[in-house]
C-alpha cells in the first residue's frame, strides 16, 4: 500500500498541467460561437429556423385546406349541407392564412425592437438550382 501511495505521489509530481479544449456541440452549429451564444444570437438563429418551418407547414396546410374546400364545393352537386361545409372550410383556411401572415409580421416587428439586425426573420431565402 505504501509503494502504491509513493508511486501516485511521484506520478502526480512529475505530471505536467494540460488544458483540454472543451466545446459545446450545440453552440458550434450554424457558425455560432460562445460570444454569439452569450449575446442571444444563437437563440435567435434557432428560433428563426423553427419559425420558418412552422410558417411553411402552416402555409402548406392552408393551401391543402383551401383546395379541399374548393373541390368539395365543386362536387357538392347543389347539396346545401356540403356547400356550407365547403364554404366553412375555405373561410377557415383564409382565416388561417391571415393568422399566419399577422403572426409573421408581429414576430418580425417585435424582433426588430428587441434584437435589432441579429434576428433576421424577414430575409427570406429562396431555393435555386445553384444552392
Description:
The chain has helices at residues 2-14, 34-39, 41-74, 80-114. With 131 residues, it is mainly α. The chain starts with a helix and ends in a 17-residue tail after the last helix.
The coarse silhouette is elongated
Derived from helix and strand composition plus strand pairing, the structural class reads mainly alpha
Helical run tally: 4
Strand-residue proportion? under 5%
Percent helix, as a range, is 55-70%
Biggest pleated-sheet summary: none
Q: Report Rg.
A: 28 Å
Draw up the topology in text.
Layout: H1 2-14, H2 34-39, H3 41-74, H4 80-114
Helix pairs in contact: 3-4
Brief overview:
The protein has 131 residues and is mostly helical.
Protein traits:
single chain, 131 residues, mainly alpha, 4 helices, 67% helix, 0% strand
